[in-house]
Amino acid sequence: MMPKRQLGFSLVELMVAMVIGLVVMLGATEAFRSIKVSFNRLQDISNLQSSLSFVSDTILHDIRRAESIDENDGVFTIRFMNSDEHLYRLTEDDGDYALQVDSGDGFSTLAKGLVNDQPLMEKHGDEELGGWQVNLSYRDGGDVKDYSFLAIHRREVFQ
Question: Which pTM value belongs to this model?
Answer without folding.
Answer: 0.71
